[in-house]
């Protein structure tokens, strides 16, 4: 028998959020022995790690409601994030199946590469797009020059990217000469580019490598894959947690 994770989320809450009615009806399912966590029958009061644990009802993994789809796309440079581009440039929606119709959650610049989610789940999209629920977004930036410790510190503490607008604290680490890993939870226009510009090291190449709990270094640029049920659950949990704590490094 595996032990409960010390933090975690109550199982009935996870079930209620993934469409199994109220917490009370979720408790009835658990009490009836119809819910398993990682293959073991769950008991009432069980806590789970949405990122890791596989929750199933009557043997079917929970997390995705019928009709909803979630594509994780690795956007190449030279692709826009809007549904239709007046200039006729390729859009991220050209990279996913046409049906059911989906939309991109948030945006990446034309020149930015990396992970973006396309879905028809308006609730999750709204949750993720809400400024106070912004999940961590991790970028790898190749910049001009090699930022010294003072520049990295400034990026970490917050930089003024336009008069009166200072970015929130970020996690910043040098990954090699001229390569910086930056984790932010805000989503201001051209934020990472403007942050690097502000410390005198303009971005040459920018790749988003993680969105909250979601990353995938095997997904090649231009390809997409469906998120697994546990990934959707983890994303929803991360967004709800970010909303409660409102800061970086709290996931
Ligand atoms: N920051 C940017 O500057 N551009 C993006 O596309 C995403 C974050």
Fold blueprint:
Elements (H helix, E strand, L loop, with lengths): L8 E2 H7 L5 H9 L3 E3 L2 E2 L5 E2 L6 E3 L2 E2 L8 E6 L27 E2 L8 E7 L2 H8 L7 E7 L5 H9 L2 E3 L2 E2 L4 E6 L2 E6 L6 H8 L4 E9 L12 E3 L2 H17 L6
Parallel strand pairs: 9-15
Antiparallel strand pairs: 1-4, 2-3, 2-5, 5-6, 7-9, 7-16, 8-9, 10-14, 10-15, 11-12, 13-14
The site of uracil (URA) has 8 residues, from helix 5.
- What overall form do the CA principal axes indicate? globular
- The counted number of beta strands is 16
Q: How large is the share of residues in beta strands?
A: 25-35%
Question: What would you report as the Rg, rounded to the nearest angstrom?
Answer: 20 Å
Averaged pLDDT = 89
**What is the tally of helical segments?**
6
Could you describe the 3D structure shown?
This protein has 6 helices and 16 strands. It has helices at residues 11-17, 23-31, 122-129, 149-157, 191-198, 229-245, and strands at residues 9-10, 35-37, 40-41, 47-48, 55-57, 60-61, 70-75, 103-104, 113-119, 137-143, 160-162, 165-166, 171-176, 179-184, 203-211, 224-226. The strands form 4 sheets. Strands 7, 8, 9, 10, 13, 14, 15 and 16 form an 8-stranded mixed beta sheet that branches. The chain is globular and about 60 Å long. Uracil is lined by residues 108-109, 112, 190-193, 206. Uracil (URA) is lined by residues 108-109, 112, 190-193, 206.
């Amino acid at each position: 028998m595996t032990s409960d994770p010390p933090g975690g989320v109550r199982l009935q809450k996870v079930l209620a959020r993934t469409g199994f009615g109220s917490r009370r009806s979720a408790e009835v399912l658990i009490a009836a022995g119809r819910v398993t966590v990682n293959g073991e029958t769950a008991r009432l009061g069980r806590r789970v790690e949405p990122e890791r644990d596989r929750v199933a009802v009557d043997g079917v993994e929970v997390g995705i409601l019928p009709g909803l789809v979630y594509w994780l796309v690795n956007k190449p440079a030279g692709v826009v994030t809007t549904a239709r581009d007046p200039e006729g440039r390729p859009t991220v929606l050209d990279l996913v199946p046409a049906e059911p119709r989906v939309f991109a959650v948030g945006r990446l610049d034309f020149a930015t590469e990396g992970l973006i989610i396309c879905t028809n789940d308006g609730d999750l999209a709204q949750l993720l797009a809400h400024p106070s629920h912004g999940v961590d977004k991790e970028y790898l930036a190749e910049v001009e020059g090699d930022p010294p410790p003072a520049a990295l510190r400034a990026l970490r503490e917050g930089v003024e990217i336009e008069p009166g607008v200072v970015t929130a604290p970020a996690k910043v680490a040098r990954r090699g000469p001229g390569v910086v890993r930056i984790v932010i939870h805000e989503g201001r226009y051209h934020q990472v580019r403007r942050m690097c510009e502000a410390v005198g090291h303009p971005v040459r190449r920018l790749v988003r490598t993680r969105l909250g709990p979601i990353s995938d270094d095997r997904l090649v640029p231009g390809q997409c894959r469906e998120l697994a049920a546990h990934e959707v659950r983890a994303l929803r949990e991360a967004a709800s947690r970010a909303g409660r704590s409102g800061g970086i490094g709290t996931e």
